[in-house]
Amino acid sequence: MKDLVIIGGGPAGMSAAIAAYESGIRDILILERDEHLGGILQQCIHNGFGLHKFGEELTGPEYAWKYEKQVRALGIEYKCNTMVLDLSADKVITATNSEDGIFQIQAKAVILAMGCRERPKGALQIAGSRPAGIYSAGTAQKFVNQKGYLPGKQVVILGSGDIGLIMARRMTLEGANVHAVCEIMPYSGGLARNIQQCLHDFNIPLKLSHTVVEIHGKERLEGVTIAQVDENRRPIAATGEYIPCDTLLLSVGLIPENELSKAAQVKICATTNGAIVDQDRQTSVPGIFACGNVLHVHDLVDFVSQEAEIAGKAAAEYIRGNPPENISIAVKTDGKIRYTVPQIITRKTDVTVYFRVTDVYRNVKICVSNGETVLLTKKRLKVAPGEMESVTLKGKQLDQVQELYFSLEAV
Question: Whole-prediction pTM value?
Answer without folding.
Answer: 0.94
